[in-house]
Amino acid sequence: PVIADIDAGFGNAEATYLLAKKMIDWVKEGRRTPDEAVTYLQRFCSCGVFNPARARRLLEQARTRTK
């Protein structure tokens, strides 16, 4: 659900499900902070629909969630 929430945060096809999944995995692995992942994801949204605060919150939740 977290991947779908981030993917849906774009409101268009600018960011893919796989890109959102990759960022979530990287945050969980400690390869990116939630802020770094949000900045990366935000670059692909040219229309401005992306909600960085929501994405940051979802990435934080994913990072602290146990498997």
Descriptive report:
InterPro entries: Pyrv/PenolPyrv_kinase-like_dom (IPR015813), Pyrv_kinase-like_dom_sf (IPR040442). GO terms for molecular function: catalytic activity. Helices cover 63% and strands 0% of the residues. With 67 residues, it is mostly helical. The chain has one domain (2-64). The longest helix is centred in the middle third of the chain and has 13 residues, at 17-29. The two termini are 13 Å apart. The model has no long low-confidence stretch (mean pLDDT 80).
Question: What's this, in brief?
Answer:
63% of the residues lie in helices and 0% in strands. It is mainly α.
Number of helical elements:
4
Profile the largest sheet: none
Distance between the termini: 13 Å
- What form results from the Cα inertia axes? globular
Order of helices and strands: HHHH
Arithmetic mean pLDDT: 80
| Number of separate structural domains | 1
Strand content: under 5%
Count of individual beta strands: 0
Cα-atom radius of gyration: 11 Å
Helix content: 55-70%
Alpha-beta content class: mainly alpha
Poorly predicted spans:
none
InterPro entries: Pyrv/PenolPyrv_kinase-like_dom, Pyrv_kinase-like_dom_sf
GO molecular function, one term: catalytic activity
